[in-house]
Write a structure and sequence with these properties.
Strand order of the largest sheet: 1-6-7-8-5-4-3
Structural class: alpha+beta
Oligomer: single chain
CATH class: Alpha Beta
Number of strands: 9
Helix content: 10-25%
Order of helices and strands: EHEHHEEEHHEHEEHE
Distance between the termini: 51 Å
Shape: globular
Number of helices: 7
CATH architecture: 3-Layer(aba) Sandwich
Number of domains: 1
Low-confidence stretches: none
CATH topology: Chorismate lyase
């Protein structure tokens, strides 16, 4: 079945301050004493590959289902501000990440179209695997953390939101390659425990 149209990006209900994300000290909501638990903090603020994390947690290989992959000329308010650093024209790719019968994450990424043609030749392959072919070095910088919601995510995850989300950039040789936003299903609490920990 061919990919459909791009979906609207999830709506952020809360976003961490950029300086807190840079320091790796966020995960606390304003006016709410609960904070991200250690395992969720590692998943959201760490610089590891989410597809490798999902496979390690579940013991099942990650399948990527492409929802849409097409030119994106109207970034407006939906895209993270870091997307403005990419060279035009842009392409946006949206996918589900599944382990067996469990849909554990949704992701979208923005690319310069020429870079996308170079790195995304296998559409259903995880981005991390495409970019690290031939052991090429990459640098990942986490730029944002948020709680988001979207009707399509409720339908896809089969669990109500809000959902924890992050966005980050990949760099190679000091040059920005792509901006990626990931949203994680609460189903991950089965392996990671509750996302939020309330200090006693």
């Amino acid at each position: 079945m061919p990919p459909s149209e791009l979906w609207p990006s999830p709506i952020p209900l809360w976003q961490a301050a950029p300086e807190a994300v840079a320091a790796g000290l966020c995960g606390e909501r304003e006016g709410d004493p609960s904070v991200l638990s250690g395992p969720w903090r590692l998943l959201l603020l760490g610089d590891g590959s989410p597809t490798r994390h999902l496979q390690s947690l579940t013991g099942v290989a990650v399948d990527v289902e492409v929802i849409a992959m097409e030119a994106d000329a109207d970034l407006a308010h939906e895209a993270p501000k870091e997307v403005s650093e990419l060279d035009l024209p842009l392409l946006r790719r949206q996918v589900w990440l599944r382990c067996g019968d469990k849909t554990l994450a949704w992701a979208e990424s923005w690319w310069n179209q020429a870079e996308a043609e170079r790195h995304l030749q296998e559409r259903n392959q995880p981005i991390w695997r495409s970019l690290t072919a031939k052991r090429a070095e990459l640098y990942r910088e986490v730029d944002g953390l948020a709680l988001v919601e979207a009707p399509a995510l409720v339908a896809g995850f089969g669990r109500p939101g809000p959902y924890w989300s992050r966005h980050y950039r990949f760099f190679r040789g000091g040059r920005e390659l792509t901006v990626i936003r990931e949203v994680f299903s609460p189903e991950l609490e089965r392996w990671l425990g509750p996302a939020q920990h309330t200090p006693s």
